[in-house]
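hey so u asked for the seq, here:
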Amino acid sequence: MPEFSAPSRRGILFGTAAVSAGALITGCTSNEPEKKDSAAPANAPVADGAPGKAVTIGFAGPQADHGWLNAINDNAKQRAKKYSDVTLEITEGSNDTAAQIGQVQTLINKKVDVLVILPADGKALTQVGLQAMKAGIPVINLDRIFASPQAYRCWIGGDNYGMGLNAGNYIGEQLKDKPDAKVVELAGVDNLELTKQRTQGFDDALKNYPNIRKVARQAADFTVESGQAKMAQLLQAQSDFDALWNHDDDQGVGALRAIAQAGRKDFIMVGGAGAKSAMDAIKADNSVLKATVLYPPTMAASAIDIARAVAQGKGVGGMAEMEIPASITLYSAVVTKDNVAQYLPTGFI
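ran it, structure tokens below
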């Protein structure tokens, strides 16, 4: 795609200070004095909780018809409330790409200072991201990535491959001493790239454990009902296996129902995303669910931090570079009964 000319608000599109991915959640609310780094520019402005230039952030996401998507909206709203200098313009949200494009265009016409967009379809919304950037409105692309890096100033999202990789490694460690161990996989929506990445990460992790074979895979639809139906099919087809990797905790609620109805307790289950219901079950330790791999909806709060910093021409601290990174990939931590208390506050409903 041809490169477009730099917009007049170039200084906004390219922040004038540094950001640390690990500091995104805490760096913007800290009132502690910034520690000087001799390697960093002495005059580099860093965003903190103190009021600064008034900023209007437009937030456009898909319809919140899933626990994780609802948590995305909640994280964005709650984060924006922490800043007296931030006004959040949030759209109704839609899974219809044409409707979401229209919502983003409305925000562009309102001349918001910066946009945070979680597209229902990254490829389909790329052009409207480019439109915003050309209009001098920096775009923070949340999770589902646009087809062109010219359509966003910064991308922040989860690590789908890492989810599968860490789930596979956790299961591998639990079964590494069991000869001829068998695992099954309850995937998400098969035509989504994220589902393919989660499966690929899982398969790659299992390559490190030659004693383990994946004997079945079934795709569900990220809903409780589909999780129950597809898990029931897996249980009927596979009378003997040692572990289950379930891509999504919402469909995992249904999967657990099917497992309980079948009276099965002979395997361990690892979930995905980090729902509160999953963490509660892990903490209670009274079911086959022993772990979940995070896909943190707190990324929406971090996106608000980044948007505020970019619009104010600041960074959020931590690195020697002058610029906010072009992309930030969050880590998929494995939550077990040993660390669930630490992560439970982030669990979504």
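The chain has twelve helices and twelve strands. The mean pLDDT is 88.
lmk if thats what u needed
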